[in-house]
Amino acid sequence: MIKELLNKRKFDIYSDRLGPDCPFTHWRLYFKKTMQLLCKQKFKHFPDSAEFRAGAYAIACSKIYLGENVIIRPNTMIFADPREGDAGSVIIENNVMLGSGVHIYVGNHRFDLANKNIIDQGHSPAQTVVLKEGCWLGANVVVLPGVTIGKNSVVGAGSIVTKSVPDRVIVAGNPAKVIKNLL
């Protein structure tokens, strides 16, 4: 058991992820100073004004860029692609607001090979997700691979964003559709 605990501690410290399933680093997210030190080590970019709160998950932190004044709230899950290369990054620009429980995905399971079970088909190529400056994603929004949310746009709570969103609009629904222009 001691060896298992030591291996888990080593994994939590050196892996490219954060979340409640990494208890040896997760406790640091409860305290601002230790949260900032940890996140500056793990993320591609993490400014002093950003926060990553306890209860949130990030996979492939080294491919996640957080801008100024971005707060990642509890139950949010950000899944960048752990494979090498630039594809599959998550870029969250300055002053982006995220509600709790937002999920961001850069890849998906393949399901196009009729002669194989889906579980055996692997993953589709990863596509970068970009949240442009000043946009706002309500609680429990899901953003799918390759999507860009436009500058100062709003995504209604519970929406599933399957296609890119232009600047200064409100989108909502499943799939999310433009319901109002903010011009």
Explain this structure.
This protein has 183 residues and is an alpha/beta fold. 15% of the residues lie in helices and 26% in strands. The strands form four sheets. It has a six-stranded mixed β-sheet with strand order 1-3-6-9-12-15, with no helix packed on it. A five-stranded mixed β-sheet has the order 8-11-14-16-17, with no helix packed on it. The chain has a four-stranded parallel β-sheet with strand order 4-7-10-13, with no helix packed on it. The longest helix has 13 residues, at 2-14. The termini are far apart.
Q: Got a strand count?
A: 17
* Rg measurement, Å: 17 Å
Identify low-pLDDT runs. Answer: none
Shape: globular
Features:
15% helix; 3 helices; single chain; six-stranded mixed β-sheet; alpha/beta; five-stranded mixed β-sheet; 183 residues
